[in-house]
Structures are given as structure tokens and as C-alpha cells.
């Protein structure tokens, strides 16, 4: 089996899309899963019954009274669920850098086998948890998150197979990652017909499909960029070190011919810039400001998802049917991420091609075209953040439909980061998400007063500062930081 043919590459693309869509980012459907866990009385012993009840006493039927009483205050229960999501979302971001290193060091097959092990262990743990062992969710959800993000990391390289459409495919995979949160909505809708145990056992069995795809449709090593003309991957190709060296040589030969690299034809050796190192990117001022901006956005994102069930219960006066309706609406808007995200990549691809043509005429460096193509994407993300912050701060239940729609733009704030680290693809992007994970534990776990949106627990004034991204180059020949032209 060879990876030369277009049908083989399309099969890799589509199965990767299915993998991201069905498995990678299910964590962000947490709100739907919390609804099911509450139906199963997880952590319900932490709820406080109304005055005059006998608390945790046992009734005549032998059933603990805390399973039968009407509740007035379940903030402690909500705090447990929020804490689980906080831990899982922290690991989802923090582990991107070490997982990126594992992917670099041990390559695709090893990284994917680790992902499959973590993911399967997590789904089996969730399948066999019960009311008495609900604490195991503190272990299972972080493992599920890390396994999922590793699926995404290993799939993003597939964009290298499609040349000038690379950014579009990467953003499409990011969108599929977020859309996979709809899997928990499906589990919620099936809850009356199939137990949560059966649903997660089925997901665990799907690990056999992940293993098969790893062996048949994925490379042993990495997919190079630019792609050599004779590049092969898959079951019958051998990614030996010698062949990978040949691929690297082939990549260098193609570099001058690639539209993605901007080496002017008449450039003299003295004008050529040495490639930037990983650490020069990681410690650059531009990258640091982007991480600050990204951190605030992700703090909003995780705060909103982690406390949404509590927010809806407060705004709906604990009407279970109404909470279920809004939970379903949120999950549906999450699903449309796979349709919305590619537009971000299309915009960047088109602008990058345009700026590349200008750079060839003016002799500008490659960095300028990549950075200029990211400006509209960053601006659009910032505007979405501002609208989201305003809507989420208003305690009006119907307005949350608009909040759900605007929230769609937040997970893709990491996408323009690609323009900031063109030299070292695999690790510099994950290190941004890794550093930004430090803000995940900052959001409050204590439930807000009834009727008050949790997002207001943050200083709303931070919305203004977060929506001002550090300026990126606007001219075709902007020099690197600290270096005069």
C-alpha cells in the first residue's frame, strides 16, 4: 500500500476528520454529560435539602433520603462537577507541550498508541463508575482529555499532504475537535434507551478502529512539509531513518519551488535569514503577548462550559425540562464548529497566497506574509470574544442562545498561532496552549448566587484588555522583533 495516490490521501483525510469529530474533543460536551450524571445522582449527597427534612437519614423503604428529597441548594454538587472539568481542561492544555515532544521524539505510531491507551482507559473507567465511585471521574476525565488532544496533534500533520490547502485542513480538524462535544449530547439523548455504561463501552470498542487506522493510514514517522514528490506512508511503506533522511533532502530541494516558502529568486546569500530556533520563538515578545491574550480567552471558555449547567439551573429556576432544552441547544451549536472553522483557514490561505505574491515582488521575508495573513483572523476572534463576554454577563435566559453562537469562535483562538511559529510547527503551537493552561485553575469553583451568571465572577473589565491583541505586521516587509531592516 502506497501513499502516492490521491484516493489514499483523501481516505487518510476523511478518517482523520471522523476521528476528531467522534472522539478527540468530547470533553467539551461536559454540560450534556453533567445532566446525565445528575440524573444518576452523582455527588447528590452533597446537596442540602430544604428545611425540616431529615437530611441523610434512611427512609422506611431503605433508600437514603438524599436520593428522594427535593433540593434547594446543590452548589456543592455543582462545585464537584466544575472541579472535574477544571482539572480535565487544565490537563487538556498543559499536556499539549509534553505530548508534542513525545510526537516529535517518538513519532506518530508511538504517540497514537499512547493516545489510544489513555482514551480507552478513560472510557472504560467512566463506563464502570457509579454513584458510590463517582470520584473516579477525577481520574477518567483528564485521561480522556489528554488522549483526545493527542489524537488531534497526530492528525494535524495530514494538512501537509494537501499543500496550499494546509491551513484550511488544519482549521477543519480544529473545528471537528470542538464539534465532537456533540457525542455527549448523543449519549444524553440515548440515556432513556441505553445506559451510560453501554454508551461508553461502545466508545471503548471503537479503539480497535483507532489501532487499525494507525497501522494502515498513518505514517510511522512524520509527514514532511513541503511534501516530496515520491513520499509514501502507510502499512507497506517503511519509514526507516535512512528513508526519512531522503525525505528531508527531498523537502529541501522542493523548498525553493514551494509556494508556501518565500525565497525570492534573485536573493543573494547575504540577504538570506537563518532559520529561527524553537526557543527564539518561545521567548519572543510577540509570542508572549499572544499567550496572554489566548489565556484570557481560554479562561472565559472553560469557565463558561464548566459552570453552564449551574447557570442554566439558576436562570431556569431549576426547571429540568427547560435546562435540558438549553443544554441540547448548546451542544448543537458546538457541533457546527466543523462547518465554521474551515472559513478561518480559507481566509488565511487566501490572504497568505496574496501576500506571498506581493512579497516575491518586493523581496520581503517569509515571516511577513504569514503574520499579515493572521491579522484578520485575530481581529475576528477578538470581536467574537467581546460579544460573548457581553451576552454571558446578562442574566437573561433567552439571550444565552446568542451566547452559545458567539462562544463558537473562542476555541479557534489558537488557530492564528500557526502564523507565529512557521519555523517549528509541532512544538511551538502546543507550548502556547501549555502555558495558557496556567489560567485554567483560576476560575471559581464555588457556585454563584442564584440568578447570577458565573462569567460575572471575573472582572468584566478584562474583556476590554483581552480584545486588544498585540499588533502584528501590517506591511509586506516587517522585520523580525528587535532587528532593524
Automatic annotation (TrEMBL):
Protein name per Swiss-Prot or TrEMBL: Solute carrier family 43 member 3
Region (Disordered): 442-485
Keyword rRNA processing: no
Segments crossing the lipid bilayer: 12-37, 81-103, 110-128, 134-158, 170-190, 287-305, 325-348, 369-390
Listed Pfam families: MFS_1
Keywords, comma-separated and alphabetical: Membrane, Transmembrane, Transmembrane helix
Keyword Transmembrane in record: yes
Cellular component terms (Gene Ontology): membrane
Subcellular location: Membrane
SUPFAM superfamilies, per database record: MFS general substrate transporter
Superkingdom in the source lineage: Eukaryota
Gene Ontology MF: a single term: transmembrane transporter activity
Topology relative to the membrane: Multi-pass membrane protein
